[in-house]
TrEMBL record:
Family, per entry: Belongs to the insect chemoreceptor superfamily. Gustatory receptor (GR) family.
Cellular compartments annotated: Cell membrane
Pfam families named among the record's database cross-references: 7tm_7
InterPro entries per record: 7TM_chemorcpt
GO biological process: sensory perception of taste; signal transduction
Organism of provenance: Anopheles darlingi (Mosquito)
Membrane-related topology note: Multi-pass membrane protein
Protein name stated in the entry: Gustatory receptor
């Protein structure tokens, strides 16, 4: 198994089992392949996505009917976006399955010469794990604040469904982060190749240009293969930020949270915690894109 895949093989297998990643890693051949089991994963993913729509717009009707008009509008947009993101991930994986398979094979495949020029592992695995811990902590706090008795069972299921979808979005963003970071690592290795083989660079010149064109060209492939669902996640974050701005404006203006939406300050704080999680997810995307582009430009210049 490739060392680069081995670090995250559980995540790849988990996302492949629900078709967010439309290919499996073949440990014997050390490459990603599309199998018939991916079709079964697609069917499972579609069923789960259908359950999300049913849960959000039918099972939660009593919750939506109790909201104020402005909050109801925001909630409908939020739930629709939240329900659509998993479906878009599935359909995007179906449409881009060939390109994504080729992309993963290029980025996570072994390159004996470049791999001999070690660079620091700059993946944000620790940050990803920290966000996962925060997600589970948020669920425990949310469920614990209402209890587990029958009258709050619907609320508990709602929190759990949010947790599962947040985990899916966070994991998808982390896959994007891994792909972008792999380009950054390869560019760093090419930079080390230039520096350490400066006296004999003409021997490796063709290899250098071929690898630079190969890996820099994957930037466009990453955007084509992975960015559509991420754009929808950005929309969700903007909706959450808009609602957060409204809640803080209400708090600053009147000196207390919106009593129509929150019975206690604890509920308001819990809501702010969840909304902050959405924004923190973007930390997996924005910094790595900036640093990778800087690395590419430094070699190109």
């Amino acid at each position: 198994m490739s060392a680069h895949v081995q670090r995250h093989w559980i995540l790849f297998r988990l996302l492949a089992s629900i078709h967010y990643v439309p290919c499996w890693y073949d440990s014997c051949g050390n490459y990603f392949v599309i199998r018939r089991s991916n079709l079964a994963a697609l069917v499972v993913g579609l069923l789960v996505s259908g359950c999300y729509y049913y849960h959000d717009f039918f099972w939660q009707q009593h919750f939506l009917s109790a909201l104020a008009p402005f909050t109801l509008g925001v909630a409908v947009i939020e739930l629709f976006t939240f329900s659509t993101i998993p479906l878009v991930m599935l359909l995007n994986g179906l449409i881009q399955r060939q390109r994504m398979t080729q992309l993963f094979n290029v980025l996570f495949g072994d390159d004996l010469l470049l791999d001999s020029y070690d660079t620091d592992d700059r993946t944000g695995c620790s940050y990803y794990c920290s966000l996962l811990k925060l997600l589970f902590a948020a669920m425990v706090v949310s469920v614990g604040s209402t209890g587990l008795h029958y009258s709050t069972f619907t609320h508990t299921v709602f929190i759990f469904s949010i947790l599962v979808r947040c985990f899916g979005m966070l994991s998808y963003l982390f896959i994007y982060h891994l792909c972008v970071t792999r380009i950054q690592i390869r560019m760093g290795q090419l930079h080390n190749l230039l520096r350490q083989q400066e006296q004999h660079i003409e021997v490796h010149l063709d290899y250098f240009f071929a690898r630079f064109e190969l890996y820099s060209g994957q930037i466009e492939q990453i955007n084509r293969c992975l960015f559509p669902p991420i754009m929808l996640i950005f929309v969700l974050v903007l909706v959450e930020l808009s609602y957060t701005a409204y809640e803080w404006f209400y708090l600053i203006t009147l000196g207390h949270p919106d009593v129509e939406n929150f019975d206690t300050k604890a509920e308001w704080l819990n809501s702010q915690f969840w909304q902050a999680l959405y924004v923190n997810m973007l930390v997996l995307v924005v910094p790595c894109c900036d640093s990778t582009w800087t690395e590419v430009r430094s070699i190109d210049d």
